[in-house]
Write a structure and sequence with these properties.
By secondary structure, this protein is mostly helical. The chain has helices spanning about 1-35, 105-110, 115-120, 130-155, 160-170, 180-190, 195-210, 215-220, 225-235, 240-250, 255-265, 265-275, 280-295, 300-305, 310-320, 325-345, 355-365, 370-375, 380, 390-415, 415-440, 445-460; strands at about 60, 70, 75-80, 85, 90-95, 100-105. It has a four-stranded antiparallel beta sheet with strand order 1-5-6-3, with no helix packed on it. A two-stranded parallel sheet has the order 2-4. Helix 12 (about 265-275) packs antiparallel against helix 13 (about 280-295). Residues about 1-15 and about 30-65 have low confidence and may be disordered.
């Protein structure tokens, strides 16, 4: 019994000694590992149990250092000397093999999905040399960006800051005006008794630019500007007459509303009076422009023009113009009026027209233009324009003669000078047509003039 007790004590002593030695050994290993790495080592209890390969192993937590980084997985893998692991990983010392092993920590395992595993397997690790080269390239890129920034700063220094420009604009108190506001201001200046002639001329110049827009021209009338323009036509200053006629003609162009208001305001009588007097040529040209703009596509105004002796005024002006500038404008205006009525009359034969078009046909039917042309002697006046040396003047005269042929044909046939002019012009232009054909222009400008001469000669036979 004593021997057994002694044996038990011996066995107990041996077990205690063994445990003590094992603890000393672990502390020694701990101190050695602490010298090899700057990372902290923490001894934790074995969560795997006492069985299996890891039964005699201890688990530690380390942070990654500056060495080659090993990417841990779910399984324990052996760490080679000089390798480091990411923070939060589990590192243990395998007492059976004497090697360190690593795997993912508990928090990492918690979010470690199959997708992460696949991405991690496809990622390649970088060596220290590769990391150094990458850092070097980053530094070079930063230097390049710094140089570009310096260049941008040098360019920006040549210009004033946006905030400074805004302050300067605010100090100037610049106002952005609409067309209506501008026109109201201009009309007030034109109507002011304190405005000088030069100021009025400047106002008229600005108005002429604005009234090309249909809405602006109508706004000018609603502001009372039309009456001020007509007053300018009655001015004793030729410059104001010219500028006022220019503004009026621009406002009337393709603007039926302004055309009606102008006729109601007596503009036609004022314009005809100016043409009947003896203002300078430049004034007459602008007045003719205003008259043509008022009559175009407006049969009501054309009736008033004829009833107020408009053709008689134009014939006197035609005879007095030796240069041909006014003659050409007059003949062009007459040709436009004849062509308008002819087109409307032909359209009146269409039985499918609506009521509005029928009304226009009725209005044009009251314009007795052809009879007035014959009565006022235009059948012998227009051929005189063929004597001009300008091809454009001749072309417009030929077109007008063809348009007037229905009422002037008998006078054409009895006019020997007209017959001689047509023969001479045809020979002259036929040579020019040959020159055009040599240059490759089969249907050129001169060929068109020859066609007009041929058409007129056919009607005269």
């Amino acid at each position: 019994m004593r021997l057994k007790s002694s044996s038990v004590r011996g066995a107990s002593l041996s077990g205690s000694t063994l445990a003590f030695l094992l603890l000393l050994h672990c502390c020694h290993i701990n101190s050695i590992l602490g010298q090899k790495s700057d990372s902290a080592l923490t001894v934790v209890e074995n969560t795997e149990g006492a069985e299996g390969v890891g039964g005699d192993e201890e688990e530690v937590m380390v942070d990654e250092g500056d060495s080659e980084v090993v990417q841990p997985t779910e399984e324990w893998q052996t760490l080679k000397p000089g390798q480091a692991v990411p923070a939060g990983s589990h590192v243990r010392l395998n007492l059976q093999t004497g090697q360190r092993e690593v795997r993912l920590g508990e928090e990492q395992l918690k979010y470690w999905t199959q997708e992460h595993r696949e991405n991690e397997e496809t990622q390649s690790s970088f060596s220290p040399d590769e990391l150094k080269q990458a850092l070097k390239r980053i530094k070079e890129d930063l230097n390049s960006v710094s140089k570009d920034t310096d260049q941008q700063d040098s360019v920006a220094s040549k210009y004033r800051p946006l905030e400074e420009l805004k302050r300067d604009m605010a100090q100037l108190d610049l106002l952005v005006e609409t067309d209506v506001q501008i026109m109201r201001r201009l009309v007030e200046q034109l109507n002011s008794s304190n405005s000088t002639t030069e100021q009025r001329l400047s106002v008229l110049l600005e108005l002429e630019y604005l009234v090309h827009q249909v809405d602006n021209a109508q706004t000018l009338c609603s502001m009372g500007g039309l009456q001020l323009i007509l007053q300018g036509l009655n001015s004793s200053d030729f410059r104001l007459q010219e500028s006022s006629a220019f503004v009026l003609g621009s406002a009337l162009s393709s603007n039926p509303v302004v055309q009606v208001k102008a006729v109601e305001s007596g503009a036609l009588q004022t314009l005809l009076t100016l043409l009947a007097t003896t203002p300078p040529l430049r004034v007459k040209k602008k007045v003719l422009f205003a008259v043509a703009s008022l009559l175009r596509h407006f049969p009501y105004a054309q009736r008033h023009f004829l009833s107020h002796g408009g053709l008689q005024v134009l014939s006197e002006l035609f005879k007095a113009d030796a240069g041909g500038v006014l003659r050409t404008r007059i003949v062009t205006m007459l040709y436009d009026m004849i062509s308008e009525k002819e087109l409307i009359s032909q359209a009146g034969l269409d039985l499918t027209l609506d009521g509005s078009h029928e009304e226009r046909v009725r209005q044009y039917s009251k314009v007795s233009l052809q009879g007035e042309l014959l009565e006022k002697g235009w059948c012998s006046l227009v051929p005189q324009l063929l004597e001009s040396t300008e091809h454009d003047y001749r072309e417009k005269a030929l077109r007008a003669l063809l348009a007037m042929a229905p009422v002037c044909l008998e006078q054409y046939r009895s006019d020997s000078s007209l017959l001689g002019s047509l023969l001479s012009l045809r020979d002259q232009y036929q040579e020019m047509v040959q020159s055009e054909m040599i240059l490759g222009e089969e249907n050129g400008y001169f060929a068109e003039i020859v066609e007009l001469i041929d058409a007129l000669q056919v009607k005269m036979k």
